[in-house]
Amino acid sequence: MNTFYNSAKCLVSFVYWLFIANTTFRSFTQRRSLSSFISLLLTIYIIPSFGVSIWLFCGEFYLEKKHQKIANRIRYISNKCLDELKTYKNIFQNKNSEVANSIFQLCKNRQGIYGIKSNSLELLTNTKKTIQLLIRDIRLARTNIEMVFYIWQPGGLADDVAIALINSAKRGIHCRLMLDSAGSIKFFRSPWVKIMREAGIEVVEALKINFLRFFLKRIDIRQHRKIVLIDNYITYTGSMNLADPFLFKKSLGLGQWIDLMARIEGPVAMTMGIVYSYDWENETGCKILPSLPDKKILKNDLNNMTSNIQVIASGRGFPDNMIHQALLTAIYSARKELIITTPYLVPSEDLLHAICKASKRGVNVSIIIPLYHDSILVKWASRAFFSELLDSGVKIYQFKKGVLHSKSILVDQQLSLVGTANFDMRSLWLNFEITIAIDDSIFGNKLANIQYQYISDSELLDKKTWSMRAYWTRILEKIFYFFSPLL
């Protein structure tokens, strides 16, 4: 009996350490940031079971041959679509403001397209009013409606959007809805899926989580984009999920979620549509492409719309690290003022250094984050960066009136970045995200007014008070900082 027990114990131990050795080897073969690699490797050996679990969930960068072929095919088709769009020469902006020139050149060289002008933008800060405006546009749609959200939570105003979408489908509008599997789990367990499909709406569960996926591919990569495209001319994007603000995560008792969305009319919707077509074909294998804008409409718009926009997307089929590079470029372009709004502040070393250097060279740098968090891990990990930021002269504001979920950057009140990406590793390296870069001082002034309102509803973190915080909190910060490259 003892012989059997000892043999079984040795076998289990051998298999266990063989698995750890294999994990280590495969970690060495992957190209990742040094801090992320070291954190993962140390975790594997300090706490083997926990480290291997993290690797299973987060460590592998799978890109199956099937998906690679799809990505290559979509890239070829979308390039043809972009070539056709380039025949509309009057919509492209060849010259940018000094502060925006670097980021627009980066996007042109890496994405193959100039910034698109002749767009009308509206900043939306009230989620209830945003959803009501969205419902109006859905009801007025003439040809097609495409949507992608990370979270669709049934109930309240979200049900009103569902009803409007169903009614539009019934009157012949082609409607497509793509939702993240994990983020929208409540939706996929609700009756709305069947009701919508019966009405003719194409509903797709993106990056579906199932038992087989757990063993064959990463399950932590999420479809985090928020895009609405109507008639290939009106588009929405920003931080808002499709959920009633009075009901969303109400059980946490943190207050209402504060979001920021941009509603855009103009030819930039075409490039947003190309991003959507990438995601749709990746999930379904079906090819869709947005229609080219009407030249007569564009001719009229050239005299009325001025905003110059670049669409920046991340994920399979898009240039690697594009959003991360765009953020770095924007920060290094700042000369006078830099305001960052983010719910999750766990920056890469490059971003952290860029922000600190901006402050040290005389830029007035402000970071606005929520005082109340829905993620304990991120809350404590972000605190580990406060000291270095404060020592560099960065002002950190903690928003008190609800959960600040807005994601925006404003550089010298001229260059604005609005979208779905957080200042954390997940958004920068893993998730499917989208950001729009806007070169427009009028829009910049509007965004500045919103951010200044956030600041007035926040409390400034005092450097002296922060330095006197309890010792046990410093220990927790260091522990969570250790895992920050993996968050």
Helix and strand topology:
Elements: H1 2-29, H2 34-46, H3 48-59, H4 65-85, E1 92-93, H5 98-111, E2 115-124, H6 127-140, E3 144-149, H7 157-170, E4 174-180, H8 185-188, H9 192-198, E5 202-206, H10 211-216, E6 227-230, E7 234-238, E8 257-258, E9 261-265, H11 268-284, H12 295-301, E10 307-313, H13 322-333, E11 337-341, H14 349-360, E12 364-370, H15 376-383, H16 386-391, E13 395-399, E14 403-404, E15 408-411, E16 415-419, H17 425-430, E17 434-439, H18 441-456, E18 458-460, H19 463-467, H20 471-482
Parallel strand pairs: 3-4, 4-5, 8-14, 11-12, 12-13
Antiparallel strand pairs: 1-2, 2-9, 2-10, 3-6, 6-7, 7-9, 10-17, 11-15, 13-18, 15-16, 16-17
Quick structural summary:
The protein is an alpha+beta fold.
Give structural notes.
- The protein has 487 residues and is α+β, with helices and mostly antiparallel strands.
- The protein has three domains: 2-59; 65-98 and 116-307, Endonuclease Chain A (Endonuclease, Chain A, 2-Layer Sandwich); 322-486, 2-Layer Sandwich (Endonuclease, Chain A).
- 48% of the residues lie in helices and 18% in strands.
- The chain is built from 20 helices and 18 strands.
- The protein has a 16-stranded mixed β-sheet that branches.
- Helix 7 links the parallel strand 3 and strand 4 (174-180).
- Helix 2 (34-46) runs antiparallel to helix 3 (48-59) and helix 15 packs across helix 20.
- The chain is globular, with a radius of gyration of 23 Å.
- Residues 59-64 have low confidence and may be disordered.
